[in-house]
Amino acid sequence: MRRTNTFAVRPLSDNDERLLLDQLDASASLWNELNYERRQQFFDGESVWDTADYRKQYVDVLGSATAQQIIRKNKSAWQSFFAARKNGEDTAPPGYWGNEDDGRELRTLIRNDQYTLETGERSRVEIPVGQALKDEYGLGYHDRLRLEVAGDPKWSGEQGRLEIQYDETDDTFRAFQPVTAPDSRQDSPLASHEAALDVGANNLVACTTTTGQQYLYEGRDLFARFRETTEEIARLQSKLREGQYSSHRIRRLYRTRTRRRDHAQDALVRDLIERLYAEGVATVYVGDLTDVLSTHWSAEVNAKTHQFWAFRAFIERLSHTAEEYGITVEVRSEANTTRTCPACGEQKNTDRDGDLFRCPCGHEAHADLCASRTFLERQAGEHVGSMARPVRLKWDDHNWSELPHSPEKASPNEKRTNRSTSDGKLASVGTA
């Protein structure tokens, strides 16, 4: 199974930090120069594959293998662009890694056989550097740049290409290492129960299981912050001079908005799957939002479903995390579940007022939880019995914490999800 280790790296000296920044800047420059030539050829109706020999131009700074990796990644981006166009998708050509006026997006790529990662008490990674940078910063001819690794990466196995990025918002260098982990690392479900998820934005996930348990992850505060950042981005864009499309501050806000959303969703997926595993769930059904995502009935709904949710990325996160526990994720149609009464099956005369669902039969309950229950019964093909009091969870920027009146007061997997090392270092783990 394919996984990604995500961890911070730290240069061991100011000299090493300047060297690393120069390496990342040269990598971004190579990408931009090559991408500019290909964009010009594309818009002129010419072949984008006949380009200058950029590997030769950058080999002294980056080294031959690193320059080759950036060129290959750019080629892959253009191949994906043409494949999407062939499938009828309206997509833009590959973009730049920043620009000279607003600053480049500093990143580089290291081939899998060109770096070494050692973990343990003193975790470190060593990467190659071009001879010109070695000479400028006083590295020996055979020396490589050594970086401290913050934390202990979770996944081991066949390592893939390493990507290093500089996050100027946090003044942090982050590394992303794809790993092909053996399937033996997977757990097996404890039983054969099922669960269904209703995905939204006011409540990110409403979940019902065949064991009679329900979970509700509230999202109003998260979306409110997302919307505030979006409005600030729009305000700053309105003040840009003619011909300018972005700025250092706008890009920083975009990154902050995305990172905050992804962090909350990653933590949600991990928390939910661990709870479902403990419940003995073997199959999770997720509502297909395809119809919802193609319907633009208000600017706010559009922002929630398209920008905030990033549904495909969420499903990928969910599937990869569930795979660790041997849980299967299936995307199914959830048509009419939001207006179907789980008690009597009525659809036409039901009513939803915010989070409250009402049916003429007298049934009243939380609307999203009703939808997830109806969705589960439809997929499982059986009636789900009485429900326990729902577990309601709210994001506090670090963890999903249970609100009062939930049957549990703390996550049973709190210890398992604590990835801090004894010295305060942290190695976060994502999915590829």
Low-pLDDT segments, ≥5 res: 292-298, 408-432
Mean pLDDT: 83
Q: Rg from C-alpha positions?
A: 25 Å
Which structural category do the helix and sheet elements fall into? alpha+beta
Number of strands: 21
Binned, the helix content reads: 25-40%
Tally of helical runs: 11
Give the DSSP E fraction (strand runs of 2 or more residues). Answer: 15-25%
Largest sheet: 9 strands, antiparallel
Outline type:
elongated
- N- to C-terminal distance: 10 Å
Report on the structure:
The chain is built from eleven helices and 21 strands. The chain has helices at residues 14-43, 54-62, 64-86, 131-137, 220-238, 248-279, 290-293, 299-308, 311-324, 367-380, 414-417; strands spanning 2-11, 98-99, 103-104, 107-110, 116-118, 124-127, 145-150, 158-159, 162-167, 172-180, 193-199, 203-209, 214-218, 281-287, 328-332, 351-353, 356-358, 364-366, 391-395, 400-402, 429-430. The strands form four sheets. Strands 1, 4, 5, 6, 7, 8, 9, 10 and 21 form a nine-stranded antiparallel sheet that branches. Strands 15-14-11-12-13-19-20 form a seven-stranded mixed sheet. Strands 16-17-18 form a three-stranded antiparallel sheet. It is elongated and about 80 Å long. The model is unreliable at 292-298 and 408-432 (pLDDT under 50).
